[in-house]
């Protein structure tokens, strides 16, 4: 089974990673791809002060490096779940709208399942557009949307 796990560095992404690891029965025969996507920082046209293109380039590079860190953490989390198992595990950092990038990567890679976290924003989040909602409605395969368990008081 080819499982695409999309993470964003949040506690919701970590919950998705945990759920994906729990459901993998035969890790030695599964293929796992961990991805994360980030969007470009676009200049704001109504800025009161001119900001150089170099500033936006530095912001973009910082976000790219942060996203690489998210993916590296998820890889470590996955390997912890299956100690001693030789995993078929790959990863990728993508640049663009996260829902669109996840869908395109799933098509290109031939994923059997996409696992994503849900921030649980409900109606307003769906109205404004959410990554998990976009993936569910346009994915080429099954999608597991994982909600982070409620914390106990």
Describe the structure.
It is a single chain. The protein is an alpha/beta fold and 153 residues long. It has one domain: Rossmann fold. It is 45% helix and 22% strand. α1 (11-23) runs parallel beside α2. The relative contact order is 0.23. Mean pLDDT is 86; it is low at 124-128.
Provide the descriptors you would attach to this structure in a database record.
single chain, 153 residues, Rossmann fold, 5-stranded parallel beta sheet, 5 helices, 5 strands, 45% helix, 22% strand
Secondary-structure map with pairings?
Blueprint: E1 2-6, H1 11-23, E2 31-38, H2 53-81, E3 88-95, H3 98-109, E4 113-118, H4 122-128, H5 131-138, E5 142-147
Parallel strand pairs: 1-2, 1-4, 2-3, 4-5
Helix pairs in contact: 1-2, 3-5
CATH fold annotation: Rossmann fold
Compute the number of structural domains. Answer: 1
Beta strands, count: 5
Mean pLDDT value: 86
- For the biggest β-sheet, the strand order reads 3-2-1-4-5
For the record, the CATH class is Alpha Beta
Corresponding CATH superfamily? HUPs
The dominant shape is globular
- Fraction of residues in H or I helices: 40-55%
**What's the alpha carbon Rg, rounded to whole Å?**
17 Å
The total of helices stands at 5
Order of helices and strands: EHEHEHEHHE
Largest sheet: 5 strands, parallel
CATH architecture: 3-Layer(aba) Sandwich
Q: Which band does the percent of strand residues land in?
A: 15-25%
* Termini gap: 38 Å
Give the low-confidence spans.
124-128
């Amino acid at each position: 089974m080819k499982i695409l796990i999309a993470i964003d560095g949040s506690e919701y992404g970590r919950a998705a990673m945990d759920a994906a690891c729990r459901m993998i029965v035969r890790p030695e025969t599964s293929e796992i791809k961990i991805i994360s996507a980030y969007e470009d920082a676009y200049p704001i046209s109504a800025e009161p002060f001119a900001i150089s293109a170099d500033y936006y380039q530095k912001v973009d590079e910082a976000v790219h490096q942060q996203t690489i860190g998210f993916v590296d953490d998820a890889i470590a989390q996955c390997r912890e779940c299956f100690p001693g198992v030789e995993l078929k595990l790959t990863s990728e950092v993508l640049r663009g709208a996260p829902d669109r990038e996840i869908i395109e990567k799933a098509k290109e890679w031939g994923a059997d399942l996409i696992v994503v976290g849900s921030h649980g924003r409900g109606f307003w989040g769906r109205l404004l557009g959410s990554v998990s909602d976009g993936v569910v409605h346009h994915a080429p395969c099954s999608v597991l949307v994982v909600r982070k368990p409620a914390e106990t008081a």
